[in-house]
Amino acid sequence: MDRREFLQTGIGAAASLTALNAGLYAAAGDKPLRVGLIGCGWYGKTDLFHLMQVAPVEVVGLCDVDKNATEEAAKLVAGRQASGKRPPMFGDYRDLLAQQKPEIAVIGTPDHWHCLPMVDACKAGADVYVQKPISYDVVEGEAMVAAARKYNRTAQVGLQRRSTKHLMDARDRYIRSGKLGKVAAIDIHSYYGSPSDFPPAEKPPANMDWDMFVGPADWRDYSPGIHPRRWRACREFSNGQTGDLCVHLLDLVRYYFDLGWPKSISATGGILMRSPGTNINTHDTQTALFDYDDMHIVWTQRNWGENPEPDYPWGVTLYGEKGTLKISVWQYHFYPKNGGAVETAKAYEEREKYPEDVAHKETELFAAAATRAHMKNFLEARQEGKKPVADIEEGHISSACCILANMSMELGRGLTWDAEQSQVVGDDEANQRLARNYRGDWVHPTPENI
């Protein structure tokens, strides 16, 4: 059976989550859930701590290629979990899964390291909360969907805008109510500045397993500017701002209007403003069109010049026949077409209820309540045997759309996507790029080999 046939038959036949899987949490009652964290950086810890705020949790393992990161996480976790224990620490996620056998794996690694741990966690019997974008390439995402279905695992993607109170209120007040009217044009944009250049490459520090950090990606020498948190400026490890910021808001729009795959994707852009010789190799400019026939969604990334939207540097504008709706993670504004009072609301925060949000450095307060709600939805889904609100397949569609936008930009032509065949129509070169070559002995998962 080839990849195409598997996607059409194997996944569909195993699409339902089993009651056995759902009963794991319910049967445990108040017994703490055994949780492992893979990727102990900023957002990995943040996701873990929000999970610990909404459910009884015993963190049974921490994994990172940076020993300093695992040490810091172990200290923080010991101070937060009821047992007071410091979790065991690992440098290889496979050892954590084999030795600790967690019920839930939280994956907060860089993007190029999402697929393999997620697939292996499903095989090991864990349900998964994985950050977005779910994959580096399209076939990785297909394999992750196949793994969740084959092993009957609940898999929630960190696309928590689907669980963000003010954004769901905006959906109900203006879209579902009909107050916005028909919408045919939607703008998604980011006007954040471009990162500064990396320092020259050097030998990695003793606490860092750089070979494992690079993992299956194309090799790139260590620079102290890359780790932590600036790896998104490396094309080897990420899909740039398209994979980081566009995916969140494209996914939200898809959720608003119940959209699946676009008919076609086309994009232009590249490194147009950054100085020659820079060692940052992700694009600083991009315009992408996601064509849904009677609805056009345009993504605009411009990391230079004046920000034309000071209140919405990263946001969405929905142009309706009865008005205009601007939304972001911080707020929304509705402007009626024929005048009248502008309606607005701010993001919902819970800092008084959860003061540890403020104590934990760099918690995104605007996202904390949403992530907790997203975690609750994840736990309810695994208890009730249903798909979570940001199920892995939804995360795959949104992630793959962004990956294909980058591919269109790099190839210099539009791509017509055949969702049933999981292929770009009439474009062999594009189809060859759906799965990148893995480095060394790492084996690229496919829907057939998971």
Show the helix and strand layout.
Blueprint: H1 3-13, H2 19-28, E1 33-38, H3 42-54, E2 57-63, H4 67-80, E3 89-90, H5 93-100, E4 104-107, H6 115-123, E5 127-130, H7 138-150, E6 155-157, H8 165-176, E7 183-190, H9 210-214, H10 240-257, E8 264-270, E9 285-291, E10 296-302, E11 314-320, E12 323-327, E13 331-336, E14 343-346, H11 356-359, H12 365-384, H13 392-411, E15 415-418, E16 423-424, H14 428-432
Parallel strand pairs: 1-2, 1-4, 2-3, 4-5, 5-6, 7-10
Antiparallel strand pairs: 7-11, 8-9, 8-15, 9-10, 11-12, 12-13, 13-14, 15-16
Helix pairs in contact: 1-7, 2-12, 3-12, 6-7, 7-13, 10-13
Describe the protein:
This protein is of the alpha/beta class. It has helices spanning 3-13, 19-28, 42-54, 67-80, 93-100, 115-123, 138-150, 165-176, 210-214, 240-257, 356-359, 365-384, 392-411, 428-432, and strands spanning 33-38, 57-63, 89-90, 104-107, 127-130, 155-157, 183-190, 264-270, 285-291, 296-302, 314-320, 323-327, 331-336, 343-346, 415-418, 423-424. The chain has a ten-stranded mixed sheet with strand order 14-13-12-11-7-10-9-8-15-16. A hairpin with a 6-residue loop joins β13 (331-336) and β14. The longest helix has 20 residues, at 365-384. It is globular and about 60 Å long. The two termini are 13 Å apart.
